[in-house]
Specification:
Elements (H helix, E strand, L loop, with lengths): L3 H8 L2 H5 L3 E7 L6 H8 L12 H17 L2 H17 L2 E9 L10 H14 L5 E9 L6 H13 L4 E5 L11 H9 L3 E6 L5 H11 L3 E4 L7 H10 L2 E4 L1 H6 L11 H6 L3 E4 L4 H4 L3 H10 L5 H11 L2
Parallel strand pairs: 1-2, 2-3, 3-4, 4-5, 5-6, 6-7, 7-8
Helix pairs in contact: 1-15, 9-10
Bound molecules: zinc ion.
């Protein structure tokens, strides 16, 4: 075995796995803190997520019932953000790209200005410990909401956000409808990401990457159904930020053992390993690495190679 990290995986040494530097490039800040921290802060128990949920709607249903009634306000968001970055730090995450949903402007008393100031302060608070790179995110369902889209456009102009991400149901909006916002983000030097191919197929992944000029795809596991699309992603150096537990819990894949991250890797696609929504899926980046090792998806040396690459 060629590295301390690989040895730690093979030995199941969780302390050593946690203390090794890692990246989390697919995370949503609203859901990024451990649920136990949320309970401590609220001073009450929170209904735990079921082990399996029926896709995005199942997850939304759970959040609507168990999380949103307590956490859908700015004070709670500030708590979660701080707890999330602290937890990431304790898990050895040194590079953290986590999205702040543009919806937050409706919660902050000062609107966009307050949200931007908060993102900048979080970045400086952890400087030297965690390279926290604020990302601005939006749901595909916001495309018809002019005020939110104009807030998003203004958020891009501030220069505080380093990347952009879009999520929720693929059928809620065609990539063409948001090309203008991605062009604007690119002109401001931001990294371009979007969720696609979580439940949808390879053609939609390729089409969305082309139209929005994406550098990274959140999930993108649907690409595994097409060798041609996988080769195209590999040649194009498009990275897929994969969240294995999220895919299993929401039913996108049957189990970890058969997760398509293996096929993607074997076709030369640049894959990384991430958390998605730690509050809901309960697995840190360290946990995700160990889970993949224990399920026999990757060897310890392959996971070390993915870890190193994800930090670049
Ligand atoms: Zn996600």
């Amino acid at each position: 075995m060629s590295s301390a990290f690989a040895e730690a995986l093979a030995a199941g040494d969780t302390a050593a796995i946690r203390s090794t530097a890692k990246a989390d490039l697919h995370s949503h800040l609203y859901f990024a803190a451990p649920i136990a921290d949320v309970e401590r802060w609220l001073g009450r128990t929170v209904e735990r997520p079921p082990p399996r949920m029926d896709g995005l709607d199942g997850m939304r249903e759970y959040a609507r019932r168990a999380i949103n009634p307590y956490m859908d306000n700015w004070t709670a968001f500030e708590f979660v953000a701080d707890a999330a970055v602290r937890h990431a730090q304790s898990d050895g995450v040194v590079l953290l790209e986590t999205s702040i949903d543009i919806w937050a402007v409706r919660h902050h008393p000062e609107g966009l200005r307050g949200v931007v100031a908060f993102a900048a302060s979080l970045e400086s608070q952890f400087r030297g410990q965690v390279d926290f790179r604020p990302e601005v995110g939006f749901s595909r369902s916001f495309v018809s909401k002019d005020q939110l889209m104009s807030s998003l456009s203004e958020a891009i102009e501030t220069g505080v956000f380093r990347s952009i991400d879009m999520y929720a149901h693929e059928h809620d909006c065609e990539p063409e409808a948001v090309r203008w916002i991605y062009e604007k983000a690119r002109s401001h030097g931001m990294k371009l990401k979007a969720h696609v191919g979580e439940f949808g197929g390879a053609d939609e992944v390729k089409r969305t990457v082309e139209i929005l000029q994406l550098e990274e795809v959140q999930h993108g596991i649907g690409a595994a159904e097409s060798a041609a699309v996988m080769h195209w992603l590999a040649d194009n150096r498009t990275r897929l930020n994969v969240c294995p537990t999220s895919n299993v819990v929401l039913g996108a894949v049957a189990d970890l053992k058969s997760h398509p991250i293996r096929v993607l890797y074997d076709h030369g696609v640049d894959v990384t390993i991430n958390t998605d929504d730690l509050m809901i899926f309960g697995q840190s980046v360290s946990d995700e690495y160990l889970n993949l090792y224990r399920a026999g998806v990757f060897t310890a040396d392959e996971l070390e190679e993915i870890r190193i690459r994800s930090l670049r």
